[in-house]
Amino acid sequence: MANPQTNQPAHVKHYFVSSEQQFDAAKMGMWLFLVTEILLFSGMFVAYTIYRSWHPETWMALSTALDWKLGGLNTLVLLASSFTVAMGINQIQRGNQKGLLINLILTFVFAGVFLVVKYFEYAAKIEHGLLPGAAFDPHGISHGFDYATYNVPYGPQFFSIYFVMTGIHGFHVLVGMGLFAWITWKAKNGAFSADYYTPVENCGLYWHLVDIIWIFLFPLLYLI
Amino acid sequence: MSHSAPGLNYLNHAKGFKSWALTLDHKRIGIMYMVAVSLAFLAGGILAILVRLELLGPGETIMGPDAYNQSFTLHAVLMIFAFIIPAIPAVMGNFVLPIQLGAKDVAFPRLNLASLYIYLIGAVIVMLALVNGRIDGGWTFYAPYSTSIGNGILFVTAGVFVMGFSSILTGLNFIVTVHKMRAPGLTWNRLPLFIWSIYATSIVQVLATPVIGITVLLLFLEKAFSIGIFDPALGGDPVLFQHFFWFYSHPAVYIMILPAFGVISDLMGTFSRHQVSGYKFVALSSVAIAFLGFLVWGHHMFVSGQSAVSSIVFSLITYLIGIPTGVKVINWVQTMYKGSVQLKSPMLYAIMFLFTFSIGGFTGIMLGVLAIDVHLHDTYFVVAHFHYVMMGGNVIAALGGLHYWWPKMFGKMYNEFLAKIAALLVFIGFNVTFFPQFILGTQGMPRRYYDYLPQYESLHELSTYGSWILAAGLFLIMFYLIASLINGKKAGLNPWGALTLEWTHTTTPPDHHNFHDTPVVTRGAYDFHLARHLFENGGEVSELDLGGDGAAPSHEATPVPQEPVA
Amino acid sequence: MSHDSGHHIIPVKMLYAVIGILVFLTVLTVALAQVELGVFEVPVALAIALTKAGFVVMIFMALKWDNRVNATILAVGGLFVVVFITFILLDTEYRGDLSNTTEGTIMDQQRADQAMEGREPERADIQFNRQ
Question: Alpha-carbon distance A15 to A1, whole Å?
Answer without folding.
Answer: 8
